[in-house]
Design brief:
The protein has about 170 residues and is of the alpha+beta class. The protein has a single domain, classed as Gcn5-related N-acetyltransferase (GNAT) (Aminopeptidase, 3-Layer(aba) Sandwich), CATH 3.40.630.30. Helices cover about 30% and strands about 30% of the residues. The protein contains five helices and eight strands, in the order ββαααβββαβαββ. The longest helix is centred in the C-terminal third of the chain and has 15 residues. The protein is globular, with a radius of gyration of 15 Å. It starts with a strand and ends in a 7-residue tail after the last strand.
Length: about 170
């Protein structure tokens, strides 16, 4: 199933759930993500992503964890990756987004952050978090603009947690 998102700049994205067969495309995608953004996404410096780093993106269980891929509707190129991973009680879901370097500033991150928020809310997640390097100013600013609140990451001064709490429907 593919859905279409339109970014704030008018870019149309075809978004679908990642599959194991997407591993080669994701590997090539992360080679087109900036070195800093790759480090921010995996919280580790590496020239290329490993199979182990890609496994959570291609083998999501579609219940607690979902991985989305965003493709430019015009040229069908993979331009974004978005992950939602929830705890068993769905009290908290962690989100992570990566955008291809040449697509930054086009609203892809905004659109994928909205998608992950809507997906978390639909699943009944009470709170979503993003763990960011304090050096990742662009992501921190985007998440703050989208209603996320920064808080310290206990015991790790180089990281910050940004969280957003959802209102639960009456009776839940």
């Amino acid at each position: 199933m593919t859905s279409v998102l339109t970014t704030r700049t008018g870019l149309r994205l075809d978004v679908r759930i990642a599959q194991p067969s997407d591993e080669p495309a994701l590997k090539a995608f992360f080679d087109k993500v900036s070195d800093d953004d790759r480090r921010f996404r995996f919280l580790a410096a590496a020239e290329h992503v490993s199979h182990q780093q890609l496994v959570p993106l291609i083998e999501a269980d579609h219940y607690q964890c979902e991985s989305f891929l965003a493709f430019d509707s015009i040229n069908a190129e993979l331009v974004g990756s978005a992950l939602l991973a929830c705890d068993k009680a769905f009290d908290c879901g962690e989100i992570a987004i990566a955008i291809r370097a040449d697509y930054k500033g086009k609203g892809v991150g905004w659109a994928l952050l909205d998608l992950l928020g809507a997906e978390a809310e639909q699943r009944g997640v009470r709170r979503v978090i993003a763990i960011e390097s304090r050096d990742n100013h662009a992501a921190i600013e985007l998440e703050r603009e989208k209603g996320f609140t920064p808080e310290p990451f206990e015991g790790e001064p180089t990281l910050v947690i940004l969280s957003k709490t959802f209102k639960l429907p009456a009776g839940v």
